[in-house]
Amino acid sequence: MTDALGKFWGSLPLQSGRESRNMMDKANRTLVPNRIRREEILSYAQRIWQDQDRVTTEIASDALIFIHKKYEADPTFFSGKSMKGIVGGLFYLLGQRYGKFKTQRQIATSLKTTEVTVRASCRMWTELVQKHYGYAKME
User: How many CB atoms sit inside 10 A of residue 26's CB?
Assistant: First the structure.
C-alpha cells in the first residue's frame, strides 16, 4: 500500500514541501475507513455477547484487526456496504473461533439487520479468517 501511495504522490505535480507533506499526512490518516469506528464495533459486540466482557473485547479487537488488514489489501471492499453488513459475518466467525457461538439469527437481531446480510458477510470474510487462523467453520 505504501508503494502504491508513493507512486500516486509521485505522479502529482510538484508542490511546496509543506503542501506535499500535508497531503501525505492526510492520506496516511485515512487508511482506515472513516465510517468504521472502534467504539461502534465494541458497542455492536457488547449487544451480541452481553455476559462476556473479556470475550467481547477480544472479538471486537480482532474484528478491528481484520477490518484494517482487509482495507490495506483492498480499500474498495467496503464500498457500498453498511457497517452492520461488514461486522455481522465477522462477528459470527469470530464467535465460533472463541467458542461463544451465536446463531446468524441472534447476530442479525442484535444488529437490527437480516440473516441474509450476516450470511453474505460471512462469505466475504471467510477467506481472510481462514488464512489468519488456519480454518473457519461455516454452518
Answer: 9
pLDDT digits (tens, 9 = 90+) for 98-132: 888 899 999 999 999 999 999 999 998 888 878 77
Q: What are phi and psi of 93, to 5 degrees?
A: -65, -40
Alpha-carbon gap, residue 71 to 124, rounded angstroms: 13
User: pTM for this one?
Assistant: 0.69
- 114 phi-psi bin (left φ>0, alpha ψ -120 to 50, beta other): beta
CA 22 to chain centre: 27
Residue with cell 460471512: 122
Question: What are the φ and ψ backbone dihedral angles of 30, each rounded to 5 degrees?
Answer: -100, 20
